[in-house]
Specification:
two-stranded antiparallel ribbon; Arc Repressor Mutant, subunit A
Length: 259
């Protein structure tokens, strides 16, 4: 049976295709979207798949991507419209976190996550599309921390093989301390990087501390009733592939070129 993320992706693509482009175009309507979604899935029809499609459909309403009604004269089903939140997702459908299948495909094209990071990120995406933004922030922060620790371990392994000293605090148990020590070490090596890697290092490393980690800390150590917004978690998820891609390139450089 098709995965719920794949169904969501196809459904969003159908909505994007069927959005009215002019005044004479038909309004968005439930039966048209559901019928075309089922056709594009190209799977054996039946009650089970129908109910999975319906689950994905109503999730888009429950989490605020769609809302019933065309206008005040036609406020009820079968007509519906795309909300502001939904429009943001459709603008970058192929890789937006609101489309987890597309987002994960894009991420896989720039980095290969370790199993721990992948499990945290996948749960973070589940939380995000479910509107659980505080939980999503914590999960995305956990995935980013796993990437930093993996890079730390690769650095220690290579330095040990070269019989070189381990930088102070690199083997600390606190991720913030490790991140700072790792940044200091790599910053001292960046003259040996290629031009592209050096630019990415300078541009994206601080994103971990300034965006992903800050939002994660806001969720884990709240100082207000609503410390984390949909926009802040969305930003963290958009930055995450850049961090993962950078970490993959740094790990490759460490294992092959660090001397």
């Amino acid at each position: 049976m098709a995965e719920i993320y794949d169904i969501r992706t196809i459904m969003l693509q159908v909505i994007q295709d069927q959005q009215p482009k002019g005044r004479t175009d038909a309004a968005l309507a439930q039966n048209s979207v559901l019928g075309e979604t089922k056709r594009r899935l190209e799977i054996t029809p039946g009650l089970a798949i129908d109910q999975v499609i319906l689950t994905a459909w109503y999730d888009l309403f429950r989490t605020g991507y769609l809302a019933w009604g065309l206008n005040l004269e036609n406020p009820n089903p079968p007509f519906f419209h795309v909300t502001e939140n939904g429009r943001h997702t459709l603008e970058s459908l192929s890789r937006d976190p609101g489309n987890p299948a597309g987002y994960l495909r894009h991420l896989a094209s720039v980095a290969e996550l370790n199993p721990i990071a992948h499990s945290y990120l996948a749960e973070g995406l589940d939380c995000y599309v479910g509107g659980l933004y505080k939980a999503a922030a914590v999960m995305v922060g956990g995935a980013a921390e796993s990437i930093i620790l993996e890079l730390r371990d690769a650095t220690i392994q290579k330095l040990t093989s070269l019989d070189k000293p381990i930088p102070k605090h690199l083997d600390d148990w606190r991720v913030k301390t490790v991140s700072g020590a790792l940044h200091s070490f790599l910053d001292g090596q960046k003259a040996q990087f290629g031009h592209e890697l050096r630019d990415e290092f300078e541009a994206y490393w601080t994103a971990f501390a300034q965006q992903i980690r800050a939002v994660r800390n806001d969720a884990g150590h709240p100082t207000s009733v609503d410390p984390v917004t949909q926009d802040s978690v969305h930003a963290s998820l958009l930055i995450f592939p850049e961090l993962a891609g950078l970490a993959s390139k740094l790990k490759k450089w460490i294992m092959s070129d660090l001397k």
